[in-house]
Specification:
- With 326 residues, this protein is α/β, with parallel strands linked by helices.
- The protein has helices at residues 2-17, 35-48, 66-76, 100-107, 121-130, 146-153, 164-171, 192-196, 198-207, 217-221, 227-231, 239-251, 260-270, 308-319, and strands at 22-28, 52-59, 84-86, 119-120, 137-141, 172-178, 189-190, 212-215, 224-225, 257-258, 276-281, 283-285, 290-293, 299-304.
- Strands 4-3-2-1-5-6-8-14-11 form a 9-stranded mixed beta sheet, sandwiched between helices.
- It starts with a helix and ends in a 7-residue tail after the last helix.
- 51% of the residues are buried.
Amino acid sequence: MKYAFLFILLFSTFAGLAQKPVPIIFDTDIAPDFDDVGAVAMLHAFQDQGEAKILAMISCNAFETTIPTLSLLNTYFKHPEIPLGIVKGNFPNKDCQQQWAQAIILRYPHSINFNDKAVEAVKLYRKILTAQPDHSVTIISVGFFTNLANLLASSKDKYSPMTGKDLVAKKVKHLVSMAAGVGKDGKGFREFNVMVDAAAAKKVFEEWPTPILISGFEIGEKVITGAPLIANGNIQKSPVKDAYSLALAANKSPEGRNSWDQTAVLVAIKGYDPFFGMRKINFKIEDDGTSLVIPGEKFFYLTEKMPPSEVAKVVENLMGHQPGKK
């Protein structure tokens, strides 16, 4: 009976009955793709509407544009005070091939110009989590699992005498992740966020001590956004609009871009219903980063419900949010 009640409670939470504003730590690989930019815009829209409180943004990607990009986006949305963190070392390091990040860094003001001016990721995680009420924080992961694995492995420090795993169990409500995917014919699926640091993904999938909600590859793949944002003449001098315009042109895809990361942000703040369905699933992460569905019900996993074109309209509206507007 106890576990049945917990199952119902967690489904209710993910359905959108969580407290508002939702305290968020956003972990992103912002650079190799630009759906992260749309996800950041959505978070600021939710914050300005009183539905989210951004506690920190942390890069799991060591590429040189990541922290300046986050700094300029937060500055644009009038929240330059949001703490920024950066993965330790030079791995993972995935560049911005479409050059959108390099371009908007030159165009828009920001206070942090270099990655090494940000706080080391695990240090920032531990500082932020320690200061929060128990079981209150939602972590949104839309990149590699490096920071989260390092957090789990961390030891006591000046912020907390607890191990990283115990600190997560005490302070985090749940993890919402854009990751993995359901492959065909039981062959597994190789998804970018999992594959880049497979060892870290494996550790998190096996050891993370709170509920995990996963928005798999096939969910965001069908939600296409960006073209209406570019065509919106009411939005002027926007790094979000510029990033999409530059990247879509470089990709030669004027119809838009898949909204993988935005789906994770949407359900983290609004809940999965009415946008998506939900089922229980279990994954094993292979050494090469393949996510293989195995028997069990460890994870909450999004399923398609609302037509993707309708979800895209919701996402597009949030991506077009203008600074400081309620």
